Amino acid sequence: EPEVTQTPSHQVTQMGQEVILRCVPISNHLYFYWYRQILGQKVEFLVSFYNNEISEKSEIFDDQFSVERPDGSNFTLKIRSTKLEDSAMYFCASSYYNEQFFGPGTRLTVL
Amino acid sequence: QQQVKQSPQSLIVQKGGISIINCAYENTAFDYFPWYQQFPGKGPALLIAIRPDVSEKKEGRFTISFNKSAKQFSLHIMDSQPGDSATYFCAASMGGSQGNLIFGKGTKLSVKP
């Protein structure tokens, strides 16, 4: 069964450093998303991406965040200058015209 | 108005019992209401979803009841099993299944053998 994959599973970084979280969506999917979940809290929408551009973003997704689909298979989330409060589990999701399938997540720890 | 309120925060049910989790929303523009199941260390997985033109949807042991006038929907798990122990999130979207999902805070369900 096809699935969304994410790498790395755990990323530790120093405050102020740039990180790139990578996702490989399901191959025929057209809609791509990033969500995050701070430990013990609800899942929050960050951004959606369709037809090679951002279709919607939340207020969390400020200028420090960017997304890219560099090669038609990967979907990346970049955080330019990480803050302590960016520590969370980041989930990538993809969709065709139906449900959103979530990846296993990348745990980002900012020290 | 963008919130989805979920209760209870945690739930303990005996094996074979019925688990009931409730959610409420304010925004009448929401048009898609999924329930996600999440096991520790895993991403959320879609369990069942409903659209507001239907009052109930059943898939196996899982049923969504939807009350449009009250702006509430609930998940019922019949014959609860220890393997159902997980965190359950309700969500809502304004763009159908492709729209960004607004999640509730989650309910941690424990099913005791």
Helix content of chain A: under 10%
Question: Which protein chains make the most extensive interface, counting residues with beta carbons within 8 Å of the other chain's beta carbons?
Answer: A-B, 25 and 22 residues
Structural class of chain B: mainly beta
Oligomer: heterodimer
Shape of chain B: globular
Please, could you describe this protein's structure?
The complex is a heterodimer of chains A (111) and B (113). Chain A is mainly β. Chain A has strands at residues 5-7, 10-13, 19-24, 31-37, 43-50, 53-57, 65-68, 75-79, 88-95, 101-102, 106-110. In chain A, strands 2, 4, 5, 6, 9, 10 and 11 form a seven-stranded mixed sheet that branches. A four-stranded antiparallel sheet of chain A has the order 1-3-8-7, with no helix packed on it. The mean pLDDT of chain A is 95. With 113 residues, chain B is mainly beta. In chain B, 0% of the residues lie in helices and 52% in strands. Chain B contains no helices and eleven strands. Chain B has strands at 4-7, 10-14, 19-25, 33-38, 45-50, 56-59, 62-67, 72-77, 86-92, 102-103, 107-112. In chain B, strands 2, 4, 5, 9, 10 and 11 form a six-stranded mixed sheet that branches. Chain B has a five-stranded antiparallel sheet with strand order 1-3-8-7-6, with no helix packed on it. The termini of chain B are far apart. The model of chain B has no long low-confidence stretch (mean pLDDT 95). At the A-B interface, strand 4, strand 5, strand 9 and strand 10 of A face strand 5 and strand 10 of B.
Reconstruct the topology from this structure:
The complex is a heterodimer of chains A (111) and B (113).
Chain A: E1 5-7, E2 10-13, E3 19-24, E4 31-37, E5 43-50, E6 53-57, E7 65-68, E8 75-79, E9 88-95, E10 101-102, E11 106-110
Parallel strand pairs in A: 2-11
Antiparallel strand pairs in A: 1-3, 3-8, 4-5, 4-9, 5-6, 7-8, 9-10, 9-11
Chain B: E1 4-7, E2 10-14, E3 19-25, E4 33-38, E5 45-50, E6 56-59, E7 62-67, E8 72-77, E9 86-92, E10 102-103, E11 107-112
Parallel strand pairs in B: 2-11
Antiparallel strand pairs in B: 1-3, 3-8, 4-5, 4-9, 6-7, 7-8, 9-10, 9-11
